[in-house]
Amino acid sequence: MIAALRARLRRRWPIARQLATALVVIVITNCVLIFVAMTLWTSNEERLIKENASPAAQRALAALEAGRVPDFNGIDKVIKELDELTDTVNQRGNTALLICLLFVAICDFVLGSIFLAKLARALNDVAFSARRLADGDLSARAPLVRWASVEEAQLIDDFNAMAQSLQRAERELAESTAAIAHELRTPLTILRGRIQGTIDGIFAREEEEMRSLLLQVEGLGQLVDDLQTINLAKSDRMILNPDHIDLALEVERVIALIRPDLEAAGLEPVLLLRPTAVVADAARIRQMIGAVLSNAQRYAAGSGPLRISTARHGGWAVLEIVDHGPGLPEEAMDKAFDRFWRAETSRARHSGGSGLGLSVVRAIAEAHDGTATLANHDGGGAIFTLRLPAGIAPDTA
């Protein structure tokens, strides 16, 4: 798309070249009009002089045109009559010149108006579409006018891209708002029902019941934290505390905490860890690793080995997590990192989580100038790859 836009822009002229060309055309037009007008006027004046001359002067002029030498009396007549007509000819010449200049000015005005109207049309279209956007019509787009200059085409393309981004942001906001309402509705309904039942004496105030309510509250807290992380990353306001850390060591720390949960889900961590130095926020890195492993625990449960490796490739520190679950459909690869997206087999909240885990992972990775990707691999299952700019180990700094 970008290549096509550049090719289209190369076929257009810059506005400075268009204005210079228009100026040259107008100047040439002026010269042609003046030359034609003065030629016609001169021919007409010569005809009038011949028609109004005396017979002797006419014979002398005819002799000159034929290449003969007129008699002395004829020449004298021509000189005297031309002297008498000089003032009249000059006056008519000045009048003809003024009329010619007026005509040329009108032609210049018409040509300039046509060109400037073309320029104003593109700007008016953008202004009109901008007013539609301001009125809430996010589908407004400015059409690309014919013979638009490079600058006009770029302005229109940029405006339409902005309008498309606004429309996409509005759609994402509406979808996110609906998804957040859906995510909050279930735990809030449970909390309200249980608390009301406890107040009414329907449920006993037992420790197990309180723990169940606490789990719902923790789930709400995690949802709020994930939303805050994504919003901070989107607005470039995420605060990081970077330090020299070993990516392999952070993986070991996370595995030590959640290994029992992974094994209970039928996953056996297989660690292939090499010391990999990075400069990053250790807490955020552990948050990313935990989110990816929780995602594998949900979607690849019972699939056996879960290979986790760290290594350095060129200037990148790479973390790979490979499961042997069902993987994802190809059309779902780009959506896996979208907010509130869940695989079809796990739409329910109780099994599919909030749908924010991988969104948080990508947000944190990009805040570290890294990347996070998800793909299927030949052995079956999915492979998650995290790439972060490699750092220098503290002992070699």
Could you characterize what this model shows?
It catalyses: ATP + protein L-histidine = ADP + protein N-phospho-L-histidine. It holds the Pfam family HATPase_c. Its EC number is 2.7.13.3. GO terms for molecular function: phosphorelay sensor kinase activity. The protein is α+β, with helices and mostly antiparallel strands. The chain folds into 2 domains: 151 residues, no CATH class; 154 residues, Histidine kinase-like ATPase, C-terminal domain (Heat Shock Protein 90, 2-Layer Sandwich), CATH 3.30.565.10. It is built from 10 helices and 7 strands. Strands 2-4-5-7-6 form a 5-stranded mixed β-sheet. It has a two-stranded antiparallel ribbon with strand order 1-3. A hairpin with a 2-residue loop joins strand 4 and strand 5. Helix 3 packs across helix 4 and helix 5 runs antiparallel to helix 6. It is elongated and about 140 Å long.
